[in-house]
Amino acid sequence: MAHLEHSSFNLVLMDLQMPEMDGITATTAIRKGEEKTGQHIPIIAMTAYAMKGDSERCLKAGMDGYIAKPISSVRLFQTIHTVMSEKRAFGTDGQSGGPG
Question: Among 26, 72, 80, 99, which is least packed by CB within 10 angstroms?
Fold first, then answer.
């Protein structure tokens, strides 16, 4: 999490199963920090969990996209394209701002 304070990122691919902090908790912490900055880092969940409701749980936690493992490169790039297109459409602050 300390990297976010000193670096900027265009996109985060978030694994849900990490040893010290799971992806849901990490996303919640990132979104809380964004409340101070007004920025929005797109986050795509990457997980072996593919049960019904997992995608909705990730989106509810503040993630912008979801992709289940095993990951195909085509599906990954489609998801990245969709999420980044939405970011451009709404601007980094979540407000409608057109392309940019």
Answer: 99
- 96: in domain: no
In a domain? residue 5: no
Q: Which DSSP symbol is given to 41?
A: -
- pLDDT bracket for residue 1 (50, 70, 90): low
Are the C-beta atoms of 66 and 35 separated by less than 8 Å? no
Full domain range(s) for residue 81 = 10-90
DSSP at 72: P
CATH number at residue 44: 3.40.50.2300
Query: How many domains does the chain fold into?
Result: 1
CA 91 to chain centre: 15
How much is the pTM? Answer: 0.80
As to burial, measured by CB atoms within 10 angstroms (0-12 exposed, 13-18 middle, 19+ buried), residue 71 is middle
Residues 6+ apart with CB under 8 A from 9: 41
Between residues 35 and 51, which one has the greater pLDDT? Answer: 35
